[in-house]
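Job type: complex structure
Entries:
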Amino acid sequence: MRSTPREPGGRGGGASPHPLLKVASVETLYFDRIYALFGVSLEIEEGEIFTVLGPNGAGKTTLLRTIAGLLKDQPKKGEILFRGRRIDGWQPEAVARLGIVYVPEDRGLFRELTVAENLELGLWGRRDDGVRKDLDFVYGMFPILKERARQEAETLSGGEQQMLALGRAMLRRPRLLMLDEPSLGLAPRIARSVYDALGTISRTGTTILLVEQNARLALGVARRGAILEAGRVVLEGTSAEIQANENVREVYLGLGTEEAAVKGWRLYRKRRRW
Ligand SMILES: Nc1ncnc2c1ncn2[C@@H]1O[C@H](COP(=O)(O)OP(=O)(O)OP(=O)(O)O)[C@@H](O)[C@H]1O
Ligand SMILES: [Mg+2]
């Protein structure tokens, strides 16, 4: 997909001294008093899939919205750097122009527009000659979108809507694709096919920041990741390291000891040793 680097020193120009995205000690508050992120730090390398896992209310969506510049006057503290350049405090449009594309949990589609019209919006502002090729890539990845081209987005199934959201995001040629719980509400087989598509997208060289509650799916595709709980990173590492962690196995992967498994819901109350 990203076969034409935008500028010298970009992709293909050798190893960069900077991570693609660096989040350093970021603090985000709602209404200037409710802390959602308490000093979150992460580094995402060019070309990888990095997953942020965590339960409801952990701050996952807040993290993506903070990076995208969607929360006014946030982050309150800390820095966000994209390819070595400070972007915290930027307007969302300016962040998007850098190629940081955010697909929100509700997919952000125009429900009353057709599939084709939603995809056209992904092409907005593009004047390059790669449009045809990129559309072919999206329709090749999700042939169902071609069949449904004239159908209104709101009439699509949940899985098809997620495919449309991913397809539209890819037409913006993202440098960093940020996805909020792409498996949410999908039947396991459909979630699997969305994740297969993430693998395909990743192989084009696109960097992906993937927020999920479904640890099994996310760790299956991600190279590295972090666990966010109550606004703090409690664990970070390669997917293998995260999968090997005892707390993760019990709480996120449901692979606990026999005793823990019998107790079921009490796992969530169990004191964790992060
Ligand atoms: N618009 C808002 N106003 C006030 N508080 C908010 C707002 N959005 C989120 N919060 C609070 O910030 C914290 C983090 O929420 P966030 O939505 O980022 O969590 P999450 O990890 O995405 O959860 P989920 O898995 O349920 O989507 C929660 O305590 C939440 O109640
Ligand atoms: Mg969320």
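Summary: Residues 3-13, 258-269 have pLDDT under 50 and may be disordered. The first strand starts at residue 21 and ends at 30.
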